[in-house]
Amino acid sequence: MNASNWALILPRIAIITTLVLFIVSTTSMPRIMMKDSVLINGKRLFTERNSLSINDITPIAYPISISTEEVPSIKGTNAIVVDIPSRSILYQKSANERRSPASTTKIITALAILSQTNIEEWVKVPSNLYEKISGSMMKLAPGDELSRKDLLWGMLINSGNDAAYTLAQTYPNGEQALLSSMNSIMQSLHLNDSNFTNPVGFDDPNHYTSAFDLAQVTLEALHNPLFQQIVATSHMNIVSPSHPSISYNLTNTNELLTDTPGVLGVKTGWTEEAQGVLVTLINRSGHPILVVVMNSPQREKDSLALLEWVYRTHTW
Fold it and tell me: Over the stretch 261-316, which tens digit does the pLDDT of each residue have?
């Protein structure tokens, strides 16, 4: 075979070899399924590949372990760590076990509100609101009128139970319709270890999710640009559009958002039964990961240990 023939064949061999290595890499570790792409600070987090032709494929950088360092011991009984672009599960601990989600429930509440309602519409804060709820509050004034968008800020930043219940009470056809939408969302994503009986996250034997389900539905919520913006915000002041003399000062309950470089949200939770729950999105050097920790007495410490371990022991 002469040199000109080799010049034609060798590039083809290289292309075939690259494709084979790509296919092998995509099947070498567990993955969590996503539907399409998400942009965080202008960076695409994950990509739907099922509908792409070979000519359309843009290689994804897959995480590769470069260390024999063991995963740090955490006190949370349930956890999962996902590399978002490749959807690879880097770590899991009893990730399919059903647990009380506490206020991380509000991720699903927000997803239902964003997908099923007009968020610009004003709604009235119920006059008997504080007869029904307790816990963390946005401190809404009964009778005030705000947009659903304003209430989403209060629910996700301040973890306001009053905001969540106002959204539920003013949802088309009421609270039960909202809960039905929340559960339908989980079923549509084939997340079978979840069920919600209230929009806040109060403990109930029939109110539960798993670390795996919580990771999946959080990534679904991150498709929405407003959701991304809210959970990445540390402070916000909302002035009532109907009563300008009333304002609501919001501070994010997620300590890692201000203390840890690269953290972009997402949501905290705590109840007596659930203990500490934390969903964390972090992006360092263009490599975003999601960490979910449940049933932990030290949710921030556990989450920080896992995310630092990933970036210390993996390359892409």
Answer: 999 999 999 999 999 999 999 999 999 999 999 999 999 999 999 999 999 999 99
Query: Token digits for 118?
Result: 């007009």
Could you tell me the two tokens for 252? 């994010």
The radius of gyration computed from the CA coordinates of the chain, to the nearest angstrom, equals 22
Q: Tell me how far apart the alpha carbons of residues 187 and 172 are, in angstroms, rounded to a whole number.
A: 20
Show Cβ contacts of residue 211 under 8 Å, excluding neighbours closer than 6 positions.
78, 79, 80, 92, 93, 94, 95, 96, 97, 99, 292, 293, 294
Q: 3-class DSSP state for residue 290? A: strand
pLDDT in tens, 1-27: 555 555 555 556 555 554 544 444 444
**Torsion angle, alpha carbons of 276, 255, 43, 101, to 10:** 20
CA distance to 53, 90, 135, 181, 214, per residue, from 248 (Å):
50, 39, 17, 28, 29
| pTM (predicted TM-score) | 0.84
Pairing of strands 287-296, 78-83: antiparallel
Residue type present at position 229: Q
Question: Could you state, in order of their start, the residue ranges of all structural domains in the chain?
Answer: 31-315
Calpha distance 30→265 (Å, rounded): 24
- Rounded alpha-carbon distances, angstroms, from residue 223 to 36, 45, 46, 103, 303: 8, 10, 10, 20, 23
Q: What DSSP string describes 185-224? A: HHHHTT--S-B-SSSS----TT-BB-HHHHHHHHHHHTTS
The CATH class that applies to domain 31-315 reads alpha beta
